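Re: that backbone. Tokens:
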């Protein structure tokens, strides 16, 4: 055991420091004078001031009561100001649990595009429930996480003050610098408290490969993300409170290293993707295969959630549009029609699944292509459904990142229900 708290949290009683960080659950940890960080699913930072608390993020509806209970072991002050680093369900929806009885609604601050995000959620609640259920390994028909319904829309306490690019605040004599930074979202904010040397990054740091390539979600911005991380590094912050994972406490060298290394990784992915895109704009899948994906040995840059290949695809989407580049996929035939035709050529859907099983040992990705066609051709055949589910279970077991793992788990669940994933 080390005497350095940062080193202890890197391992946190677990042999794998990657999991120990991204899935870190604990606190409240004092990260500076009158400042605490706690995390359960996502992180919350509280700054005590003479006028009350400044709260950065608020967790989910599901976990916020436990986060608030932890925080109240350190301070009973009411919430004066709440800052949402972005509008995701695990950061901007749990504020009511932190309010003291009878207190007025606090000032709630968000970047200006957050209002547009909530409007999108209000317009597409079933879509967002479906994709998030899949992202955590479930089905559209079972839209729950931990037995709690995944509800999307405007939070109960949305921002009542928006800013555009930057905002400086003073609360109870303590200064806060808020800066907009497109990254995982277009409405992201990072917060720096210079007197206490504390940097709150939101999901711009998550103790894993940045979530800049989520396959189901809106456009991400790794080039702006990298630029923002370098600005954060220049603050000289001593402590870092991330969107996910444990804090870095009073270790400015490590804070800077984490920020700069993450920026370097993102810049390399963008530069290499654009270089291949510029080489004749080949079909998207060929671009992905030609990009040399960067790797890092640092525990804060492991593919525990998102991964570099997905980030490449997100860069392509921004610069290259939605079309894959394959002529047949510009205006494609219905998937079920194509699958039926391919199955007929193979001698039936079961005949198509047989070589998929044989392929699995040497080329699981290719095997899954054949399995998809078999299921789409005969979704009611239970033997096909179970065979396809087994292949996706195997693929999920081989994935290092939570996102790909859960999407493959969800695909297996859909298959067992006799339903193609789409």
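Recovered sequence:
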């Amino acid at each position: 055991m080390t005497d350095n708290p940062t080193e202890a949290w890197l391992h946190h009683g677990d042999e794998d420091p990657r999991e120990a960080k991204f899935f870190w659950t604990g606190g409240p940890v004092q990260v500076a004078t009158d400042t605490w960080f706690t995390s359960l699913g996502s992180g919350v930072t509280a700054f005590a001031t003479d006028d009350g608390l400044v709260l950065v993020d608020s967790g989910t509806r599901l976990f916020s009561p436990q986060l608030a209970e932890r925080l109240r072991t350190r301070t009973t002050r009411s919430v004066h100001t709440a800052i949402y680093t972005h509008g995701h369900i695990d950061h901007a929806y749990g504020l009511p649990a932190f309010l003291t009885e009878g207190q007025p609604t606090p000032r709630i601050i968000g970047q200006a595009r957050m209002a547009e995000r909530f409007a999108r959620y209000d317009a597409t609640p079933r879509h967002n429930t479906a994709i998030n259920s899949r992202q955590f390994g479930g089905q559209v028909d079972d839209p729950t996480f931990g037995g709690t319904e995944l509800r999307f829309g405007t939070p109960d306490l949305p921002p009542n003050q928006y800013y555009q690019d930057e905002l400086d605040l003073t609360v109870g004599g303590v200064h806060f610098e808020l800066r907009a930074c497109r990254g995982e979202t277009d409405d992201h904010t990072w917060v720096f408290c210079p007197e206490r040397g504390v940097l709150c990054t939101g999901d711009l740091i998550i103790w894993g490969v940045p979530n800049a390539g989520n396959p189901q979600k809106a456009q991400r911005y790794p080039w702006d993300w990298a630029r923002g991380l370098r600005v954060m590094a220049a603050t000289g912050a001593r402590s870092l409170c991330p969107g996910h994972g444990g804090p870095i406490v009073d270790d400015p060298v490590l804070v800077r290293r984490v920020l700069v290394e993450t920026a370097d990784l993102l810049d390399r992915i963008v530069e290499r993707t654009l270089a291949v895109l510029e080489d004749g704009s080949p079909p998207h899948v060929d671009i992905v295969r030609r990009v040399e994906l960067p790797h890092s040995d640092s525990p804060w840059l492991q593919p525990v959630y998102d991964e570099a290949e997905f980030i490449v695809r997100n860069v392509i989407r921004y610069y290259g549009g939605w079309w894959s580049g394959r002529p047949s996929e510009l205006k494609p035939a219905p998937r079920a029609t194509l699958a039926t035709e391919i199955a007929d050529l193979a001698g039936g859907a079961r005949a198509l699944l047989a070589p998929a099983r044989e392929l699995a040992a040497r080329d699981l990705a290719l095997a899954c292509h054949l399995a998809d066609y078999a299921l789409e051709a005969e979704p009611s055949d239970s033997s096909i459904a179970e065979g396809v589910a087994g292949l996706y279970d195997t693929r999920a077991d081989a994935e290092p990142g939570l996102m790909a793992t859960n999407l493959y788990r969800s695909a297996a669940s859909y298959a067992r229900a006799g339903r193609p994933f789409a």
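The longest strand covers residues 26-32. The two ends are 48 Å apart (CA to CA).
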